[in-house]
Amino acid sequence: MFYAISWFVMFCLLAFWSLGVWALHAATVWAVSSAGALTGAGSGVEGLHLPDWLAPWVPPDIVQAMTSLLSGVASAVHGVLQATPSLADGLSVAAWVIWSLGSALLVLLGVGLHLLVAMWRRRSGGSGPQPRPPVTA
């Protein structure tokens, strides 16, 4: 009975592990695939300017340096967002590798639990029917 319970628990854990990896994979592939649609988000950086109350306190050289820095960052973000949809295939491979490693560890845990139950039963004398001693005539 303990063998069946231990393997049932292991199969339930394997099912939850598979469901979790599948859900995380689906969410990340969706996020990565739709990241290319955000390429227009970085184009609004050029329209940024200091508030009127802060402009007299900031030197013009710093304003110009920050504007050029933000435009460089915007082009880098644009390039990264254009490249992210191609990462979806790599995520699929990574999800399969992570799932298989976790599944193998769960199966090894199940085998270890099986051996632990076997050792426990052997040490306690077992709960099954005991063989009869031989009859001597």
Your description of this structure?
By secondary structure, the chain is mostly helical. α1 runs antiparallel to α3. The protein has a domain at 1-39 and 79-121. The model has no long low-confidence stretch (mean pLDDT 82). It has helices at 2-33, 60-83, 88-123.
What topology does this entry show?
Layout: H1 2-33, H2 60-83, H3 88-123
Helix pairs in contact: 1-3
Number of helices: 3
Q: Main β-sheet, in a few words?
A: none
Oligomer: single chain
Could you tell me the strand content as a percent range? under 5%
N-to-C order of helices and strands: HHH
| Average residue pLDDT | 82
* Outline type: rod-shaped
What ranges have pLDDT less than 50 throughout 5 or more consecutive residues?
Answer: none
How many runs of DSSP E, i.e. beta strands? 0
Radius of gyration: 31 Å
In short:
This protein is mostly helical and 137 residues long. 67% of the residues lie in helices and 0% in strands.
Q: Which characteristics define this entry?
A:
mainly alpha; 137 residues; single chain
